[in-house]
Amino acid sequence: MDDHDTDAAPDRGRAFYGRRKGKRLRPGQEERLTDLLPRLRLPESGSLDAAALFPRPVTATWLEIGFGGGEHLAAQARLNPGTGIIGCEPFVNGVVKLLRTLDDEAIDTVRIWDRDAMELLPRLADASIGRVFLLYPDPWPKRRQRKRRFVSDESLAEIARVLVPGGEFRFASDIDDYVGWTLVRAARCPSLRWTATRAADWTTPWPEWPGTRYEAKTTAEGRRPTYLTFERV
């Protein structure tokens, strides 16, 4: 697909992610999936009041799409104990890693959606999310696979809709082609503004950035991450 064409509406039978499960789970992991996940999982249907999803009042609600093993999400929860965070991740092995952290550290400000984030976004109210993270998403590098990339005209319109005025969409990738793909689509989303004014703005991590294991690996392999911040206008 040419970057100057408008993205077609996605096929709802098409997932933006690959496999749902990797290596075999241990008994303790299976137990958390059975006992803890149902308590933290978002309802499967209906509109969602983001602020009411947590057991205590929160000053803001953030959303991380594709949290992997949950390292970044957990770090943000520790740094921002007054903020509620919704984490989306369909990969079971990543979910159980986050569940262990939440359980061990008694973190109560996280809720989980273990399915496609595009099933969740339309259920969130307008201007209900303060910050959205999309960090190192699957780049689907082959041309025939690019329609499976999460970033599209439709997904960015939904992200912009749920962000509060002045809220941020943060995107990180080590794949230059996906960075360019995202910039093109964000540029034609009238409700998002790229905040960069100098090169350091997209080559320097955010101030509270904890890093991820994937990022450490990709940096060691010689690929440079790019950090994009878009503001809801």
Automatic annotation (TrEMBL):
SUPFAM superfamilies: S-adenosyl-L-methionine-dependent methyltransferases. Its EC number is 2.1.1.33. GO terms for cellular component: tRNA methyltransferase complex. One of its GO terms (molecular function) is tRNA (guanine(46)-N7)-methyltransferase activity. Catalyzes the formation of N(7)-methylguanine at position 46 (m7G46) in tRNA. Residues 1-14 have a biased composition (Basic and acidic residues). This is tRNA (guanine-N(7)-)-methyltransferase. Gene3D superfamilies: Vaccinia Virus protein VP39. Residues 17-26 have a biased composition (Basic residues). Substrate binds at K142, D174, T212, R213, Y214, E215. It comes from the Bacteria. PANTHER family: 3-DEOXY-D-MANNO-OCTULOSONIC-ACID TRANSFERASE/TRNA GUANINE-N 7 - -METHYLTRANSFERASE, PENTACOTRIPEPTIDE-REPEAT REGION OF PRORP DOMAIN-CONTAINING PROTEIN. It comes from Methylobacterium variabile. S-adenosyl-L-methionine binds at E64, E89, D116, D138. Pfam families: Methyltransf_4. The gene is trmB. It is an enzyme of class 2 (transferase). Residues 1-26 are annotated as: Disordered. Belongs to the class I-like SAM-binding methyltransferase superfamily. TrmB family.
